[in-house]
Design brief:
The protein is mainly alpha-helical. It is 68% helix and 1% strand. The protein contains 38 helices and 2 strands. A two-stranded parallel ribbon has the order 1-2. α10 packs across α11, α21 packs across α23 and α30 packs parallel to α32.
Length: 675
Amino acid sequence: MWLSFKSIGDDHLKDPGAQLRRVIDFRQQQIDRRDFLFSDFDDSEEWKGLFRRWLLTFVLERTRSDAGDSGAIASPVRASTAVISAEPASIIPVSPVPSAQFRQVAKFINSLSLDALRIQWPDKEGPLVVAHLQVTASAAMSITYPDTHLGVHEANLLYSSRKDVILAAFERVHIIRSVVADDFRRVPGWYWFSGDIGAALFAFAADHESVAKNALDILRMAKILPAEPYVAPIISQCLRNASLREAALDYLAAVADPASIEGLAAQNDDDAAAGGLLEAAVAARLRRGDESVTEALEEMRVLSDRVKSALTEFVATASAAGLLGAVVSRHEVLRKSAIKALALGGNLVDTLSFSLLRDPSTEVRSIVYESLLAAGAEIDLVAMKKALEGLGADEMRSLVVSYYRRLPLETLLVKLEYYGEDSTEIYEAAALQYPKDFLGRVRRDLRDQMVTFQEQWSLGLRRMFSDEIAQSIEKAWADNINVVTFVRNRYTAAALRALGVGGEKGDLYFGQEYITHGDALVRDAAARVVGRFGTAADAGSLVEVALKSYGGVAEETAVAATNLSGHIEKVILPLLKSGNPTAIRPALARLRKTRSSHAIKVLSSLLRDEKASTRVLAAAEIVKIDPSRAEEILEKYQQEYRYYDVVCWLDRLLFAPVPLLGAFYQELSDTERGW
């Protein structure tokens, strides 16, 4: 341990204060305990000289020890005048380290001395000097301890004065290394980057695991090709490391030539690496639309994530003939993607469809049933329900409604019972398929909250049974208030969904009436009616629904609200502050339609929002609108209360090399899933 204390002037010693008193007491403890020698220094210049001398002394002593003497090494720190008469310093044992590593350190110290001549240190001591020294010390430590990176606070402190400090080459390299290693996006530093980004990232890919994995991920996202001859040994090194293998394989599958990947597999003696390389080659061929590669998939027992990702791209470009061969694959992800693509294109032949109804995957069977129903094929409803047990409630409802829409209205009316099986699906099917004949009744039912419908059902019971039996049936349902409420809400939601598709402008009344309903299904269905027929005055109620919803409903409702109004306080800001990216995106799109100066003012106010998604997406949008203005905002933002993630993302999107910008925007999009 190298311990040092800054000399304290007489004026401070007279009235040291609480913090300085603790330092003085700690220093006295070291004198009393005699555990460590320490040194006093007067200013930062003296400390820099001490630091370089300590490092050099340590390296020289350690190198001698490594050459023949494995004994302990004394601390290179010289004793202060306060402890000259103390007992000899404690001997600190140091584990043997290869001398080659210390030769690297010695080389670093030599470069540090040379670079120091070019470093422009601030005249006055302060936090910036401390942060700059931290970079130097951290870079030195990283040679012996590769997992050493610049701290978040120090990086941001240095970055806030980036235009006032000139860094040496080794310091800039260490900052970028720390930026690449940062998993939490809190360390800025792309401002100082210069040079070949591909070469730099491949150099980092040969670094410590904490840096290497992220470097490979950035190479993959930026689609930087492995063109240089030095890349092959680096990739081979990563493939031999179990912790880095997946990242290396993902990179190769995304950007490398399939033949070169297969060549690496043939040369690799490690079975796990060779198998992964063959999977990567398959993924690479799939991304290039190679239909013949589907045969190779059958040899794989389990599909890796990289192959599944490539299949999505393959299906988007493959021909119908190629997809027909894929629907018999034993891999669910390939069958599902291929069947869905064929169904959308109208190329799923009936004979093949019916054979797929016995597919082991519930999702595959649901896609096939959906395709057959759309084509008007004869379907056994009972068999369909049994085959799709476990399917989501909304998906099943949609399929059952599609089934009933093929029946005549007279048949539907006969089957329609208030508490009957599939009653709400039959009701919705009649309204969607026969709007001219049935929507009048739908509107009446909404006005009286299904009372007339229930009364008609009661009259039907009396026509079929005696009064006594009819009353007992009615009582059995009416005694359970939860069932009564549930059924009424399901009919109300079905009615509103039908109006959202086939209604007219006057139906806005029903949407407005039910949009504050306590039941989520009713509220969401009402929002669709309001979104279709509403005016600017209705945008606020749509925003309220969007803030209570998730996924597709939140996005659909937010889009509807912003289409109706661009009011900042009532529409845009609530959505932007929601923290839900699916609601934020439509608000940003609407904000772009306003004056750029006005949009930037609104977005700037969100850079200190408590929700990470809100402030980061706002920062990214400012860069898109006006990069030069974004840089000015960054300058001011850093001088006040700030969030590190905002500084980091502004740094990335403003100063990162061009090949990485697309990758960073893609990462930002992927990050939304975690918010």
